[in-house]
Amino acid sequence: MGASGASTQLIFFISAIIVSSVVVATASRSVFDLSNGIDDRSEIVKDQLSTEIEIINDPTAVPNDPVLIYVKNVGRSSLNQNLTTVMLDGAVISGATMTLTGSQTSYWEPTSVLTVSINQNLASGDHTVTVSTENGESDQFDFRI
Amino acid sequence: MGFSVSATMAIFFASFLILFSILYSSVNSAFDDMQTAFDEKYDGLQARSDTSMSIIDTAYYREDNSLVIDVLNTGTTSLDVNCTQLLVDGVLTSSATFQIQGVTTEIWQPNEVLTITLTNPDIGFSSDVYVRTGGSNNAQLTSPTNITAGEKVYIVDDTGIDVFSLDGTYEFTITDTVNTPTPGDVKVYGDYLYVMDNASHVDRFTLDGVWVDSIVYDAVNTPTPRSIAVDSDYIYVVDDYDHIDRYNRAAGTFVNQLISNGGTMTSPRDMSVGAYIFVIDRESGLYQVDRYALDGTGGTMIVGSARLANPTDISASSAGLQDTYVYIVNNSREILVFDESGTYQGSVDDGLSSSVRGVDATGKIFVLDGVNGLVTENLGTSIKVVAENGVSKIDML
Prior knowledge:
The complex is a heterodimer. Chain A is of the alpha+beta class. Chain A has 2 domains: 1-50; 53-144, Immunoglobulin-like, CATH 2.60.40. In chain A, 34% of the residues lie in helices and 29% in strands. In chain A, a hairpin with a 2-residue loop joins strand 3 (85-88) and strand 4 (91-93). The longest helix of chain A has 49 residues, at 2-50. Chain A is rod-shaped. Chain B is mainly beta. Chain B folds into 2 domains: 53-123 and 382-396, Immunoglobulin-like; 133-377, TolB, C-terminal domain (Neuraminidase). Chain B is 12% helix and 46% strand. Chain B is built from 1 helix and 34 strands. In chain B, a hairpin with a 5-residue loop joins strand 12 (160-164) and strand 13 (170-174). The longest helix of chain B is centred in the first third of the chain and has 49 residues, at 2-50. The radius of gyration of chain B is 31 Å and the shape is elongated. In chain B, 40% of the residues are buried. Chain A binds chain B through residues 9, 12-13, 15-17, 19-21, 23-24, 27-28, 31-32, 34-36, 38-39, 41-43, 45-46, 49-50, 52, 54, 56-58, 60-63, 68, 70, 72, 74-76, 101-102, 111, 113, 115, and chain B through 1, 3-5, 7-8, 11-12, 15, 19, 22-23, 25-27, 29-30, 33-34, 36-38, 40-41, 44, 80, 83, 85, 87, 89-92, 94, 382, 384, 386, 388-390, 392, 394.
């Protein structure tokens, strides 16, 4: 057992340290990833919970040609109106003009109204418009021309 | 061997503690964020459920071309006045002013009335209205003959003038058997009520019903007044079914014979003044509606006899509105509506009998019906008020 036994013990010890360190490092990376994921996900869900929009048009008199859709930020988050998606009768509108009213800033602040102008002349009948924010919150509005 | 295992276990244990604390911190932070977000979401929902409004009054005033809407906060939470929106006929307005009891303030508390004033509103007649009649009241009327509307509705009824609120509630009667024993035509403008009396002169009353003076009494130029109209500058008088005279509104002094007999004018029966002077004229037993510029020139027929059957009363929209219309009592059973060029827009007969006697259109169409009394008809302009949290209320003019 003498010197060779001590060397063996030392090798076992060093090996155990190295192996356990590798295991801890691997586990740490997973935990950090998991932690970051939880943080990111909670931020997204928090944003979604604090975001709420409402289309405030009068359903009995929606302006046509151009179609004007008024969307009010009734949540607590400031939004970027340039990342807003508008769908009219199931089709995404790409050329809509967005104008902010109310508290005039470059962002769509809570309680202010975004006017979406769609250069279309809608035919008589039933129509549906859906407005979605940058984080996926949306509101749908049905009306008849 | 034993020491290696111990060292490994120590490393694992220490690492576990550190990693667990990191993970716990993240989960705890996320949980707190979620809880805060849910609390805010709940607060928002609570605020919405606590928010309620009621549009208690709408009125259009010719004198200053303004639409005034009174909205009562019937909820249990205060609202932000500056974050309130008004839509008229579906269009978001940007120039409306918001006041509470005449004061510009930010907080709109429960049970307070928010007064929204919009000048130059886009209100007009719509032929496509599902519910036209707003109500009627015949409780006070006995023998009504003529009607005019401003902040109140004034109806000539036998020897008196019955006064109703714009929602059709009877308020009081104006009677002055000494100065105004036989009221005929009546018009309200500004602070005064102008009453043509006894086919001889035009009296002036305060809006509370106190006789002021005989503002037009001119046996030389206008011996037999039959119908009157009033605008910001003048009192117009149809004299003896023959011509139209014009008087200064403030002083009552004769200005000129604005439209003489001859040419387009044969036998004027009634008139109304808005952006133009509109006249019901009669020739050889047939009626027509003629239009003149405010200076009396440019007389032209805009509605021919084929459209008319014994028209008896005419009312024109205020000149300040973007779209103006002419409302005519036709055949004692309907209101015909034309634009100012004479293009037919539609007719209104909902809730009316075959004894319609007068009409005046301001924020609504006020019809005097011999059977149903004061009948209020909707123009068809929709109004929507939106509170800060999106809760809204819709009404119709």
